[in-house]
Amino acid sequence: MYVAVKGGARAIENAHRWLADARRGDRDLPDLDVAQIREQLALAVDRVMAEGSLYDPDLAALALKQARGDAIEAVFLIRTFRTTLPRFGASLPIRTDAMQITRRISATYKDVPGGQVLGPTFDYTHRLLDFTLSDAKPVPAAAEAAAPAGPVPHILSHLGAEGLIQPEPAEPADVPDLTRAPLAVPAARPLRLQALTRGDEGFLLSLAYSTQRGYGRNHAFVGELRIGYVRVAAYLPKLGFEIEFADILVTECESVNQFQGSRTQPAQFTRGYGLVFGQSERQAISMALVDRALRARELGEETGTASAQDEEFVLSHCDNIQSSGFLEHIKLPHYVDFQAELELIRKPRRDAYAGQEAAE
User: What's the pTM?
Assistant: First the structure.
């Protein structure tokens, strides 16, 4: 037994050295540094920050380098590091209506106050490989952005002023913290949103797509998608006032969904909501669609026909760290379990063969 343990330990040490060698790659090529990843693979960095629940572009870039580009492994590294950090307090709610806009679009209105700001986007590019990028030639700087100078109100506020969209309920005074307490269902909407905002992008994308294909009967419009920098502030009791200590990049999406009304409520629109760290448009839009699907019961809609409406299913499986951990653990040694099941199969087979020989 001790020989097997020691042999396994040596094999693991060798695997770690091999991993480090594979991570470095061809020694004739320059080493990829963290700053390059942070600046030139920004969308991958943003995904790691969003799903890792930690806003730190340098650490997210380092995690991507350590993980050889595996986004889920990088998220795991960030989540693990996050647990070692001391908690000083809680920030105040961010003001996305005061966002310094870099991108802002609406699929529901062409002309909106503040204008449509396309920003840096793949939406209008041709999906053709650009071989000039492999030449490593200098890239000319972009023209000066024509983003709104001051605060830009949310587009859906105009629907709210007409009473055409359901008003949002007041936020509860005591919002649970998913990072400090385990998830329990049924969950209030603030807790659901916390789970979705750090959920796996691919999983949420699949669920959101399913709602668009009729599994949930929920047709959605992107009322507004905005990306930009917001101030983060905290109230310090000892000083007796608020201080602003950071600017962070976030993506916010509000979807407009149909709602036919009921005996007690007039016909109106409802909304789904998504907010994530960085520029993560698919994540924010998917989150908004799934958030709206999960509101079906509270809005008196038919449920039980779609996975996206099943709160326990969605919230229990959207976290990629839990999902990948449970999935990947089956590749680790399960010798005892398998030998037990092997014996359960061999014994009745031996008994069956013995019975056949006795009959003959």
Answer: 0.89
